[in-house]
Amino acid sequence: MTSYDARTALDAIHHHQEQTRDAYVRHSSKLRYTLVSALTVFAISAAFDLPNPWRSLILLTASGLMTGTLFVQQRRAPVRRKPSSAEWAFSLWVAGAVIVILVAAGIGARLLKLPEPGMVAGAVAAVATLVAGYATRPIVRAITRRDGHG
Q1: In whole angstroms, what is the distance from residue 44 CA to residue 96 CA?
Q2: N or C: which terminus of the chain has fewer CB atoms within 10 Å of its end residue's CB?
Q3: 106: nearest Cα among 49, 21, 57
Q4: CB 113: neighbour CB atoms within 10 A?
């Protein structure tokens, strides 16, 4: 094997790794999964405005919907790879930011004495989830490329 052959093979490997990372990011940030996440955030928050038998039913249904969506998302992924610790940390940070927005919106709705504070907070957090899903895609792509997993 010549040095040119080795370089060509290495370039091909890097190209395939880049394609793998791009496919991973593209699939994980599809609009349908972001919409289901936003719907789940809204449903969980709005459920707290309901009386107990309905609250429990909505919470269980929303939890099942999110679990099912995560399962389907993993099963339909064109690429399987283990997320890096930086990807996990960023995902937890984004989830924490949405939770902070949810809590702040709930407190604000209660201070303003709005009729259904859980629903208002859920709507605000659902919009934040949609914005985060769209806005963080370039960051996720950069983290994925920087970590060099393929």
Answers
A1: 15
A2: N
A3: 49
A4: 7
Question: How far, in Å, CA of 148 to CA of 21, rounded?
Answer: 8
CB 116 within 8 A of CB 123: no
Q: How far apart are CA 32 and CA 51, in angstroms?
A: 30
Per the CB < 8 A criterion, the answer to whether 26 and 133 are in contact is: no
pLDDT tens per residue across span 51-107: 999 999 999 999 999 999 989 988 888 888 788 899 889 999 999 999 999 999 999
Amino acid code (one letter) for 58: I
Q: Which two tokens stand for residue 147?
A: 């970590």
pTM exceeds 0.70, yes or no? yes
Task: Read off the tokens for 75.
Answer: 């099963």
